[in-house]
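Sat 14:20. Reprocessing the chain from the morning session after the first attempt stalled halfway. Input below, unchanged.
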Amino acid sequence: MDKLYDKLSEAAVSVRSRMPVEPEIAVILGSGLGALTEELVNPIAIPYEEIPHFPVSTVSGHAGRLVFGTLHDKRVMMMEGRPHFYEGYTMRQIGFPVFLMKFLGVKSLLITNACGGINTDFSPGTLMILSDFINLVSDNPLIGVNDDRIGPRFPDMTEPYHRKLIDLAEEVADRLGVSYTKGIYAGFQGPYYETAAEIRSIGLMGADAVGMSTVPETIAANYTGIECFAVACITNMATGIQMVKHSHERVLETARRASVDLSRWISALIGAMPAQ
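Finished this time. Tokens:
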């Protein structure tokens, strides 16, 4: 057994000793999307490496900190960067931050990511609400011995992204004049950008976008009973659709440009969410 419950308890004690308030809402910020932390009132930042058992992100564009504060009078926790399967972490380690959210009192999780577009109606900069996901990795954070104190052995995935949060996000975006679409996200293990043949196959499965994160976090959130919402920033079109080779630097630059609208949207969504 990996003693997951004990590790989470130890990490929770460490974080609680430094966080100002118990968070009700958590936000995971993807590549190049970290500007939202600047809106937090009285922020307290904890580097990942200072939290027991917490996976440390090694990817450019991921600062690697938990940041606590208030936003629109809501108690918020933000993950500035995330771990990925391709970094060598197990799926259970990738799920660890979301499992920890339950121990810290989080009720709702908002996930952002930067990813590639498969739907040819999209273009770089498109913001896509995730309506569902496809897990292309033959692994997930729940494989292994189950501890019922964290979540059930067989969690339901009928509504991986909470319908009421999606409806509220659409209302907020329409009020702000933020353009968005909805679609299905496919989680790919990476770290290479998919081949053209893989993209054709993934598109035939029904995916509108593909990326290297979000799916394990979504699974972990549903497992722990945390309401989940996710929005993707299409930073590039996938292989075989765009006519230039992929570049992580270009991904980050597109994400930074789109982050103005995305940050405004997520901030207003947090303000519109009922207190928990």
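Helices lie at 4-16, 91-104, 163-176, 196-205, 215-224, 248-272.
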